Input
Amino acid sequence: MSAPSSLAEALLHYEVVIGLEVHAQLKTQSKLFSPAANVYDPDHPNAHVTPYCLGLPGVLPVLNQAVVEMAVRAGLALSCQIRERSVWSRKQYFYPDLPKGYQISQYDQPICEHGHLQIQGDDGQPRPIGITRIHIEEDAGKSVHVEGAPFSLVDYNRAGVPLIEIVSEPDLRSAQEASRYLKALRAVLMTLEVCDGNMEEGSFRCDANVSIRPRGTLPFGTRCELKNINSFRFVEQAIEFEIVRHARVLSEGGKIELETRLFDSAKKETRSMRSKEEAHDYRYFPDPDLPPLQLPAGLVARLQADLPELPAKKLERYLSLGVPEEAAQTFVEERDVALFFDQALVARPEVAVGLSHLIKGEVLRELKDQPAAIRDAKLKPADLAELVALREADRISSTQQKKLLQGLWRGEPLAQLLAAEGSQIDDEAALQAIVDEVIAGAPAEVEKFRSGKTQVMGFLVGQAMKKSGGKAKPPLLKALFEKKLNGG
Amino acid sequence: MSNWHQRSLTEVSQALAAGQVTSTTLTEMCLSRIEAHSKLNAFLHVDAAGAKAAAQSSDQRRAKGAALSPLDGVPLALKDLIITEGVPTTAASKILAGYLPPYDGAMPRRLKAAGAVILGKTNLDEFAMGSSGVYSAFGPTLNPWDQARVPGGSSSGSAVAVAAGLCFGALGTDTGGSIRQPASLTGILGLKPTYSRVSRAGTIAFASSLDQVGPFGRSASDLAIQLQVIAGHDPEDSTSSSAPVPDYSANLGRGLSGLKVGVPSEYFVAGMDPGVEQVVQAGLEVLREQGATLVPISLPHTQYALSVYYVLCTAEASSNLARYDGLRYGVRAQEKELRRLYAATRHQGFGHEVQRRIVLGTFVLSAGYYDAYYGRAQKVRSLIRQDFERAFQEVDLIATPTSPVTAWKLDERQTDPLSMYLADVYTLAVNLAGIPGLSMPAGFAAGLPVGLQLLGPWFGEPELLRAAAAFERATVHAQARPPE
Output
């Protein structure tokens, strides 16, 4: 087999096998084992630390119970088995961002195991992706490498922030599936309100284990672990780069080395970070400072009963309302957009479809690449729903809808906007005056209409709209013209 | 009165309450005695200013009749493994030379809340790893009974400070015998409480599943008064027990009658100094005379305790000491490249014994060896614990020697780590089981103190103290004081 020159060629002969490890920061008030605030604050390094966060002599961990509930909720939402008694272990290695020289994690007895998450496969069919395990662990600090300086700095604000690591089975079969799995997982965690899903700030991070095998064969190839792939786009790019790289090496008779590789997003390629020989021996052992984590009786049942509507169910509901699939998918992937949509539906359930068009179109366009910003926008969901209802009842024009929407973005109440806008709108007498004026000023067009060329109606309505400053409702104008011209 | 330094903590506590002496007088006396006996090297840091200020406050409280506790105004010392805010805390290691903690551990917080005067920080074997007091980066502590000899360890300085009358009570830590063995070798009492009874928060960890803070004193009552203040649940230590704290001084006068005391055959074997054995046997006889019934018992897994202990304590130590990397605090080697910086800092900062244990502990946790060493040791630890569980179904207390030998010469056992490890052979099973243990003066062999060890069931401190008090009333050993 000759070396493949493209992804398509590589995929002709090989199938990719992907498993993902996701680290999600939990949205607790304080850290996993210390009362320090859990906040993202890169402008104030080492401002949110206690002696524990710095690994000072004599400190001991005290478990933040809020973390446990969040982890169990995540496990339940991903159909995991929940372990009533799990064990804290120390994962040991030396690095400046690891203040104690070990990370408190869970090893052989994690809190959640054997779950799955359903995604849409490349063939359009639903595909369950296995979740091997979810365990709780501490985040590390952040090393800051100062360009050109003979030193590095470390910010321990992040040290000890609670993480759940969600490990998938090697069930994903394309870069796109991997990306869809990540989006679906992120949507679940955000719906549960356990993680804010902010990939830029690193609160939702991903490593990928990638291998390829000749199509039609079963044994897995040697895998590489890809790091630093912290956007959906990078995940796809890194995996696709690896597929081609593996295929080239194999077709030239070479061997893939088990190694960890770093993705360079500027060059869109991966490079070796450490080989198997350099891999750490983490020397896991149960942490003697912490008793095993025993879940209180009834906790799992209570959390199960309290689970919110999950994205998969939400999607089904949107589709059943007639919301187009693309819009429905977009909404469920962004928890805050779905929340906004749902709140708008409460106000005006009958305009679901029109509402979905407006949100998917103008509203998200206005928010550009930050759909989550809808949470902080001044735009109120009920007002937006009302706007759609007004339009659908033809009580406002599309021009007016656009104009009113601008006001809603500024946080002005719809009623007030309508009042300012609308004194003339429904004032038939005022409109009649405009209609009369237009008729008087366009005798030729009036003649044409009367001789059966009814298409001039467009021109007449247009003229009247202009005179009304865009505030009149076209159907009403049309009716007035017809009445006048036909009835006389 | 000029002989306050010969009194017990209980006696000075009563004298303070009666207005017969002030805390300032006692504190100044202690400070000048510490200076006069600086050759013993019991203290690594003396906080004279802090102690005097605390004494003054205490005197004001006492004058108003507002004493906080029986410990109010009593000058005490803390092993330098216990974190003290703004007062140097070194674990007797070069790697922490000059380190000033930004917070107080649970022990100084509790002692201060009780009004105690903290004189300073005492010497120890580096990171509590040793049985002689010789493995301190800041020089060995000397035994006041014979300054050519070791005082035992690792809580060497706390034991010597109490034995030599430099303070009235002191806290040490005991991971495998580090309170009981130096108490035995210096002729005083020392108590290792039940694991989880005293908070470990703010005490530098050696082996987290074995470490326990406890008091030294010159009488059972001295131990009871100190334990009363330091015992109890601490939300900052997740392994700390929430069992209620009894009144430890309540039953000290009850005597021994009716108590069944087990004597394990495995603790009276070859290797024990004949002089020690004689004193211990005589001590057992005293217990019997005082009304206890001696019952021969067996703790069949005793022979494995030493190996199990050294696997587990080194494993935990290798992990607990990983944080001393020179990056955030302590001493940092002058190296530019990260790996070399780590290696040089830890090579220069840790003493040989500490390095030996880190290497051993790293090995037993390594991939491929974990099951054979750490996993297996944990299983045998359960068996050792079960030995004691069974024994305490039959007896109330267990009596054994504390140490197979009396204080040895400073230069002995230095080159042979194994013989040093054997010094703890009677004490370390107690830590593996988590039960409380107490050493009390039982007499002398060739002029050197010998301790008798009493062991109790989990949370059996009241019975241990009661038995020690009865033994004390029937003998004169606890009254003996070393030469000035």
